[in-house]
Amino acid sequence: MRYQELDFYWKRIFELEWMSLCEGSKAIAALIVSDDGTIISEGRNKVGEESIPNPRVSHAEVEAIRNLDINRYPNLKNYTLYASLEPCPMCMGTMVMGGIRRIVIGARDAHGGAMHLIEHSTFLRNKNISISWMPQQYGDIQRAFQTLRELLYSTDNERLERILIDFSVHNAKGVEAAKELIQEGLFEGKQPALYSAEEIFDRLMAIMER
Fold first, then answer.
1. Is 61 a catalytic site residue?
2. What is the 3-state secondary structure (H, E, C) of the chain?
3. What is the tens place of the pLDDT at every residue in 74-106?
4. % pLDDT > 90, the chain
5. pLDDT of 143-160, one tens digit each?
């Protein structure tokens, strides 16, 4: 799989993720798509950006839902949220309370993912949330992007090790690909923004397909 083989939604998701990584935030993004296939809102993780008063809650899904113009797009239950990573409890709750009832997810999150909570709450079950998971390759490349971010910016080695173990639960191949890309020296003396999302995506996929 190469970047140009992705549909428009996933191309945009990885573009947004790369923007977040280049800003020092986590490589996570989300889109909201209308029933006619139009992207009507988008959001990217901004937790590393100091221009925001409280960036800790600037998660991709929350940003996408907050940015949705419900006066222009009021048919919330007909829309689909595309999330690169399984939403955390905050993002899952925002999705439910924001009226979105369909979600497509790229990667599972064994540590912070919260979609399983729906089965443990009568309130949530009654919302009839439809959950679809993308194929394994999407999860692997998603975690590869996230791993790149951690390897490039993390200064706490113990925390970094814990994070990469978490990422490896479902997507060890992506974690190893990101490590290899770093070891190749691609970013030595260079800012990530010098590269495009497409170039990084294709380099990571080439490593994983060896």
1. yes
2. CCHHHCCHHHHHHHHHHHHHHHCCCCCCEEEEECCCCCEEEEEECCCCCCCCCCHHHCCHHHHHHHHCCCCCCCCHHHCEEEEEECCCHHHHHHHHHCCCCEEEEEECCCCCCCHHHHHHCHHHHCCCCEEEECCHHHHHHHHHHHHHHHHHHCCCHHHHHHHHHHHHHHHHHHHHHHHHHHHCCCCCCCCHHHCCHHHHHHHHHHHHCC
3. 999 999 999 999 999 999 999 999 999 999 999
4. 98
5. 999 999 999 999 999 999
| Residue 51: per-residue pLDDT | 87
From 42, 61, 63, 86, active-site residue: 61
Is it the case that residue 62 has pLDDT exceeding 90? Answer: yes
Q: What is the pLDDT of residue 82?
A: 98
Structure tokens at 142: 């998603």
